[in-house]
Amino acid sequence: MKLVSFHHDGATRIGCVVGDEVVDFAVAAPELPRNMLALLEAGPGALGAARRAEHSTLARIRLAEVRLAAPILRPPKFLAIGLNYADHIAEARPAGYQATEAPIFFNKQSTCVIGPGEPIHVPRVSNRLDYEGELAFVIGRRCRHVPRERAHEVVAGFTICNDVSVRDWQRRTPTMTMGKSFDSHGPLGPWLVTPDEVGDPHVLAIRTWVNDELRQDANTRLLIHDCWAQIEHLTTAFTLEVGDVISTGTPAGVGGAMKPPKWLVAGDRVRIEIDRLGTLENPVIEEPPDTARIT
Q1: The CATH number of 78-291 is which of 3.60.15.10, 3.90.850.10, 3.90.1150.10, 3.40.50.720?
Q2: From start to end of 173-263, where are the E strands?
């Protein structure tokens, strides 16, 4: 299934995509929760009901008539791994980064999440804005101490992530969290594809365009630490919860490594495509003045 969160008629709901239509679970399966995190937390029975609703012909809306949101609107945790493709390590070496034996994880704050089509902001404090096309997966079962051979059992599905980065802020501290967590710098989507439709997540082509220029062209078979190794590593230390998003790293081709650097600017569009997962596209704008607020 391609599970979606979407906006329609002034409400945010969940459903699944079938062809060029969305099955609205609020109509096709009204007993189901109304947001994706609650659906995943409800477990296999709820997902079974969602699969049965997928065949409903009474609750369909044209995909063009809805506005897709991030599949998980507010992940409990948003974790990402750095330097997980050898070619990206090579291009990052002049900036002082190098391979490490242990995987390098950092937090992206969950408030950075946006959906397909929503704008990425060029922050007021920096013009060194960069893209990173990545495969991401979402945890479907609360888990700890998961061995590699069972890691696939805890994945609810896969999606596309743009690990947007403010490079000068990223490099100020070893944790990288500030430079990775600006509002709007965590695009996810367009949907959450269940593992049965994806198959092996380690054979997927991944490509990133800025406007019409192909910047990244790789395959997830080149991951240094694959999805299952990442789950095993993380759960050594802490519990992964339903809805946690883990982004698996970016290949070579980021704008900051080009000579001269090609930073994102207002008016650009970033498009990421991954086999079997679809396309995630977002425009880039200057940070609006109304982002300053105290509520």
Answers
A1: 3.90.850.10
A2: 186-193, 205-210, 213-219, 245-247
State the 10-residue block means of pLDDT for the chain, 295 residues long. 97 97 97 97 97 92 98 98 92 77 95 98 98 98 98 98 98 94 98 98 98 98 97 98 98 96 98 98 98 93
Query: Quick check: 230 and 104 in contact, CB under 8 A?
Result: no
pLDDT at 94: 76
The Cα–Cα gap between 151 and 138 comes to 12
Half-sphere exposure of 230 (CA within 13 A, CB side): 29
DSSP per residue, 148-196: GGGGGGGEEEEEEEE--EEHHHHTTSTT-HHHH-STT-EEEEEEEE-HH
